[in-house]
Design a protein that fits this description.
alpha/beta; 6-stranded parallel beta sheet; 40% helix; 3 domains; 11 helices; Rossmann fold; 434 Repressor (Amino-terminal Domain); 6-stranded mixed beta sheet; homodimer; DNA-binding; 337 residues
Amino acid sequence: MNFSKENNIVYGKMAVTIKDVAKKAGVNASTVSRVIKDSSEISDKTKTKVRKAMTELGYTRNAAAQILASGKTNTIGVVFPPVVDKSSQPFFMKILTSINETAKKFNVSIAIATGHTHHELKKQVRLLYSERRVDGFIVLYAGKSDSIREYLMSNKIPFVLVGTPSEQQNEITHIDNDNKLLGREAVQHLAKLGHKNISFVTDTTEGEVFEERYQGFVEEMSRQGLTRSLVKFDSYFSIGQETALVVIDDVLSLKVLESLLEHGYRVPDDVSLITYNNSIFGTIIHPFLTTFDINVARLGAASVEKFLNLLNEKPDYHEKTVIPFELILRESTRARI
Amino acid sequence: MNFSKENNIVYGKMAVTIKDVAKKAGVNASTVSRVIKDSSEISDKTKTKVRKAMTELGYTRNAAAQILASGKTNTIGVVFPPVVDKSSQPFFMKILTSINETAKKFNVSIAIATGHTHHELKKQVRLLYSERRVDGFIVLYAGKSDSIREYLMSNKIPFVLVGTPSEQQNEITHIDNDNKLLGREAVQHLAKLGHKNISFVTDTTEGEVFEERYQGFVEEMSRQGLTRSLVKFDSYFSIGQETALVVIDDVLSLKVLESLLEHGYRVPDDVSLITYNNSIFGTIIHPFLTTFDINVARLGAASVEKFLNLLNEKPDYHEKTVIPFELILRESTRARI
DNA sequence: CTGAAAGCGCTTACAG
DNA sequence: CTGAAAGCGCTTACAG
C-alpha cells in the first residue's frame, strides 16, 4: 500500500500520479514529466524505464493539472453560427466530426459554442476564452463581420474561419472552397452536354457563397457566349426556354424538382439540374442529383491544422486555404439532344 | 503596477487572479473563493465588497485551477454513435445544441466523443474519463449493450442513455419517448380517419425504436380489430389493399412517397401516410408529412438534468424519463371516404 | 464569519 | 542527462 496515493481518491478509485510513477521508476517527478512529452533531453534508457512504470501503474495524465501548469489548454473552441436550426444542414455535424477526429490526431481537444441568438453565442465564446478553456477558435461561419469576430480580432485571439470573410481577407486565416470556380465548373459541365440556355436558381441572394458561385456562373456563361438568367425560387417559380439549371444547394434542388414536375417538366429529359454540397438530400428520391462534393471532411481537417499552425508558429500573415471539390455525376443531368 | 500580476502573463495579457481580487477587496483569497460559490458562510457586506472588486478588475475564474483543486470537472462527455454518417440524421445536431445550452444553464461544460469505429470511440471515451476531463457521460445511442456501456457500468462511471437499453433497464438511467405509445397513436389517428387496412413500413427491423413502435402498432390494430401487415421497404416495394401507412421515419417516407407516386397512388387522396421525427425532411416537398414530433430539445435538456441529478444526488435507483411527443398534422393524412 | 496553510498534479527554469 | 524547488490558481479542512 502506497501512502501518497491515499489522498488521490477520485470517483472512488486511486488516481495514479506522476509521483507514483517516479517512485516506481526510481526517478524524480520532473523526469517523468519530461518523458511524457518525449523530451530529447532524456536518455533512452530512462525513457524505457519510466514508460514501463507508467504502463504498469496505468498512468494517465491529469488534464487540468497539465493545463494549469503549462498555461496551454490544447483545446480549440468550435463556434457554430447563431441560428436556430443548425440541424437542417448536414454540413455542421459532418464538419464537427471531422474537426474532432483531426484534433484527436494532434492531441488537442475541442469545446463547442452554440447559441440561438448572437448575444448568447458571444457570451459563450467570451466565457470559453476568459475561463482559459480554449487557446482560440474555429468559426464555422463567415460572410460579414459581426461582434464576435470583432471581439476575436481586437483581442488578438487566434482563430480561423471556415468560409470566406467579406472584408479583411488578408487579416483572417480562412479555409474555403473556391466558390467562383464551383460556379464556373457547373456551367462547363452543362455546356459540354450541349446546354446553351441556363438559369441559376437560388432562394437567397445574400452571403458570400451565393455571390461567388453566381459570379463564377456569370463569367463562364459570358465567356462561352451562352444565354443566362437568375431565378429567385419562390411559390411563383417557373422556367422558360432554359434547358438546364444550376441550383444553389441540394435542399433547394428537391423543391425545384417538385415544382418542375408540377409544371410538366421531367428531369433530366426536359431539363438538366446540377447542384452543390453532396448531402444526403441528393440521393433520397429520383432523379438522384448531380452535385459538387465540397469535401467537408477536408474543410474540417484543414481548419484544425491551420489553427494549430497559427497558434504555434505565429506567422505574421494570414493565408487562405482552398479545398478542392469534386463533381459527382448522378441522374439529374444529361446531354441535350 | 501590481507585482503579483507580473507573472500572470497569458496570451500577452495580465490574467486577474483570486489574489488580485483579494488584495483589492482587502480580504483573504479563501474568502474570495467562498464568494465565488456564493457560500452562505460569508456576510452580505463582504460579498458585496468582493464582487465589486471582481467586476472592477474583470475577474474570471481559471477553469483548470478550479477543476484541479476541487476534483470536479463540471463537464459532461457526450458520446455519439459509432457510425460514419451522423450528419444525415438532424437528430444529432439538434440534441447536441440542446444539451450544450442546457449544460450552460447549469454552469457545466460539455466535451464530445466521436469515432467512425467502435474501437476509436471507446478510446476517446476512456481518454476523456481517465484524463479527468469529464465527470461522466450522456450516451446518444441505446439498444444492445456494447463494450463502451460495459466499460461505463463496470467502472461505475456515471452516465445516462438517450434511448432505451435492451437489457438492464432498471440499472441504467435513460431518457426516451414512449415508442410503443407512438405506435399506438399513429393507428388511433388513422383509425379515427376511417382507415381499416394499414401497413407498417420500415427499412430496418432492428433496434428498439422499430421494435417498440411496431409493437404498439400491432397492439392497437388488434384492439381495434383492423387489418394490418408489415412491409419491408426495398426496390420491390408496392402496396395492396391498405389505405394508410405508418412509416418508421420521415427520410424513409420520402422514398415511400416517390415509390407510391410511381405506382400511381396519390397521397393522401389514395393512401394516407403518417410518420415520425418531424425533421426538416417532412416539409421539403409536398405532401408535407403528418408526423410525430419527438421533442428532441426536451430529450437533450432532460438528459443533462438527469445526469446532473445522478452525479450529485447519487440515487440508489435508476429511473426512466419519458418525454412526451406531439402529433403534427400536415398534408399526408386525410379521412377515408 | 474569516484567515492561514496545505494541497490538487502537473511544468519548467535553474543548477549541476 | 537528471533532480530539487517553485509555481500555476484555485479549494477546503482547520482554527478561531
